[in-house]
Design a protein that fits this description.
Layout: H1 3-13, E1 33-37, E2 48-49, E3 56-60, E4 65-71, E5 79-84, H2 87-90, E6 94-106, E7 115-124, E8 127-129, E9 138-150, E10 157-165, E11 169-182, E12 206-210, H3 216-224, E13 229-233, H4 249-273, E14 276-280, H5 300-317, E15 323-327, H6 344-358, E16 363-367, E17 388-394, H7 398-401, E18 416-418, E19 421-423, H8 425-442, E20 446-451, H9 461-475, E21 479-485, H10 510-519, E22 545-550, H11 580-591, E23 598-602, H12 610-618, H13 620-626, E24 630-634, H14 641-660, E25 668-672, E26 681-682, E27 685-689, H15 694-709, E28 712-714, H16 717-720, H17 732-736, H18 740-753
Parallel strand pairs: 12-13, 12-21, 13-14, 14-15, 15-16, 16-17, 17-20, 20-21, 22-23, 22-24, 24-25, 25-28
Antiparallel strand pairs: 1-11, 2-5, 3-4, 4-11, 5-10, 6-9, 6-11, 7-8, 7-10, 18-19, 26-27
Helix pairs in contact: 3-4, 5-6, 11-18, 12-14, 14-15
Length: about 750
Amino acid sequence: MTKRWGLVLALLLMSSFHARAQTAEPGVKKGDIVLFHDFDDAGAQATWKGTDTTRLELVPGGTGRALYAERIAPDAPSTMVNLDLPIEKLRGCQILIEAQVKAEGVSVPPQSWNGIKVMLHSKSPAGDNWPQQNLPQGSFDWQKVRYKVSIPADATEASLVLGLEAVTGKAWFDNVKVSVISLPRVRPATPPTGPRYTGHGVDRLRGTMISTTISEQDLRDLASWNANHVRWQLTWNGFPSSPADTADLKDYEAWLEGALKHLDSLLPVCRELGIHVLVDLHTPPGGRNAANECRLFKEKKFQDEFVRLWEGMARRYKGEKMVWGYDLVNEPVEGDVADGLMDWHDLALETAKKVQAIDPDHALIIEGAPWGGPAALADFEPLPLPNIVYSFHMYEPHEFTHQNVYNNVPPISYPGSIGGKPWDKEQLRRAMQPVIDWQRDYNVAVYVGEFSAIRWAPGDSAASYLRDCIDIFEENHWDWAYHAFREWPGWSVEHTGDKDHTERAAEPTSRQKLLMEWFAKNQKESAVPVAPLKTGLTGTQIYPRWLVIGDSITAHGPSKELSWTEPTRGMAASTVDADYVHQLQHLLRARDPHNATELKIFGRFARLSAGTIEQMNTASDEIKAWNADLVTVQLGENDNLGQIGRAEFERRYRTLLDALLVGPKHPRIVCTGVWNPGGALDANAPTQYQAGSESRQKDDIIEALCHEKGLTFVPVAPFAVQTANRGAGQNDGVRWHPNDKGMIAYAQAIFSAL
């Protein structure tokens, strides 16, 4: 090293850069600038770290001086420096990294992640992250670098990295800035409860992503493994680069139409085989730029085309039962969102609204940005819409799953030390913890759209990795798709671990056997009978015709006596749609559009009196004609056991149930316990009223009758006793009834039983 370079390095290590950093107090605010360097004052205090072979100096730059980096020899160490960020203030925040960069003669990076570096490096128990905005090679004048980064909530350190990695050439850096975009996501104090919307009617979707050239025979082969799901990628000749990167929209539309026709031609096969299809737009309009950022976020025409195309696909597949849903964009990457354009959250929300206006019945699958990894959901705010399923892809640790795909490295085993850290099942769980926490916070369904390990991982490492991943998916009730079936041989479970052997194995590999073991647990919707049985039903059942029997909780018209002037609805719901009947109808139809398509409400029974039974017997012809698939019974609140006695209450309830079982088919019958806001829970049985109380006696009778007849009993005691679930107003009678929150609890309790 020459004396000149030694002096430059000494200046670097003595923190001789000008640093105009705004030190944020604990609890930073949105918009705070935590770091700014324009390199103009060599006397300012900052701490940059480099190596003794780093060729860096301060030179005249954009508006003053700039940081200059040079790497001459291809085999020389990378030329980089880094600066620690105040991690204790930034955990869980989303930050904006900005800089000005100029280059001269920068060589082609050996890997896509090499090259000119304006990169954040963070460390957390889940592993290291290196988010960056990939920059072009060659020579270019000053241009802006601008991208968002999420700091893991459990990060232990973070640093900003500048320089040249694995490339030769020269680069200049100026006006480096780090600012706070958003504060840590505020986790709900009380996570919502109740059933999660999945968008399908089977216990679990377990399947694979498939090739763009999938054939009918391929689907039949996959179905023979008992897979019940495929993620149907709409990919234009490659990922992440594709012809869409430079094609005009007319050519893009022609390609997409051809891909959709291929899907259309095989949908009848999927119906026959009971395979649920997720339509995955792997290649969005505009493709990606040289930095692998979606051009959706660079030009308005691509966002307009994106929304328009999804509206078209919603019309195309509206009503198609075996289409599970729509995966709006595979692994979105925003980079610097152009002025006036929507970021990913807003674009997803706008598109989802437009799609649901056309097709409200299919699920919408949303991945986080960037790249859809498990950390991408950490600060993503849920969309304020129904029928959303959130997704992530699992390829961590990347050094293991993608070994010798892009590089040539010694074999890496799992479990074991990978990237200097021990990786095993618990470490995988830590890597997925942001998703586990996020699901718990919002009570939403999660779908693992991709996961894999390269087949030539040493020994049985790939199978061990896949086994541990799937165990964690199943623990958390996630639907999942393996990447991939009959796509690229590197990911194929039908090929051996020999990289040079390109033919399918004569016998199933351990990886194929693992998938088949899990697929064996799958339900196939085509095998579920359309007509419900009396007993033994699951959530996969379809209930087109629904009969509701109930008192004023189910329906009550206007009453001056009660100061209830509202139209007929369940008292004390704020609107018709807010009562439990219509809330439950929404939940049922969200699960399957064929549910509750026809609804009849008998909400005029105050009590199980002789008159009520006579009414039921008189109405038996009407009940027979209705031919219900599902009957819910909500009664008993107005019956006084002290007046009629336990035996008479039981006789009347039994007569009611017998009257409901007179149709040509035995409907599914669900009976709720009684609503008693003045009751108290049993300390020894916290889901039931106090032992010996009248409400407990009624519940015991109804539950015993349900058990006797093979019906379903749903207690309401746990939420009936909560003050927050009761009505408001001047009249005690109105206040006694469930409010909107209580109605939702009612609906969710019945839905869970179905």
